[in-house]
Design goal:
This protein has 178 residues and is of the alpha+beta class. It has five helices and five strands, in the order βββββααααα.
Length: 178
């Protein structure tokens, strides 16, 4: 592959410089490779250019990101939306990691068993009758069960129901998920 010996460098002011030795000036704002024999309609440093690197909102809005749909339509997506999509797509992994974290903390750190044990047992016994009253630490038990059943649901969907739907002849992913 031949490397070009001359590069066109744009400073963003409309003037171009040609560096014959391949060096790049310090105040370079955009780089354009040398043009071939066919003219290109693509331009840089214009506000109307869509679909390029310029459309990525990194510093403009900390809560907004741009995503491109299949037809080239650009849509803003918030960090919260991205986190929701990640949680939906990784339900099994998140649940399994949280369960392992709490379980291994309970097993490996005896000094934390009293605090971490609230994820596994009821916390407010009323006496020797085997009954329990309600208290604020019961939220940990409920959260533990929510994570456990979310993981069980995701595992059943991924490893039981989706393969079963494939064996029953449903080929479309959309129909298998329903």
């Amino acid at each position: 592959m031949d490397l070009p010996t001359s590069h066109t460098i744009s400073h963003g002011t409309g003037s171009n410089e040609t560096a014959s030795n391949g060096s790049v000036p310090e105040k370079m704002s955009a780089y354009s490779p040398p043009r071939e024999n066919t003219p290109s309609k693509r331009t840089r440093n214009t506000k109307s250019n869509r679909g390029g690197v310029e459309d990525i909102a990194l510093c403009a809005s900390p809560a907004g990101f741009l995503t491109t749909k299949s037809r080239g339509h650009v849509e803003r997506e918030s960090i919260g939306g991205m986190l929701r999509k990640a949680m939906v797509n990784h339900q099994l992994g998140i649940s399994l990691n949280l369960i392992l974290l709490v379980t291994l903390t309970y097993i490996l750190f005896p000094s934390l068993r009293e605090r971490v044990g609230s994820f596994f047992t009821l916390q407010y016994p009323t006496g020797n009758t085997g009954e329990f009253s309600i208290g604020p630490r019961d939220v940990y038990l409920v959260a533990g069960y929510v994570v456990l059943f979310t993981g069980l649901r995701a595992a059943c969907m991924d490893y039981l129901l989706l393969p079963l739907a494939g064996l029953m002849g449903i080929r479309s992913k959309k129909l298998r998920l329903r």
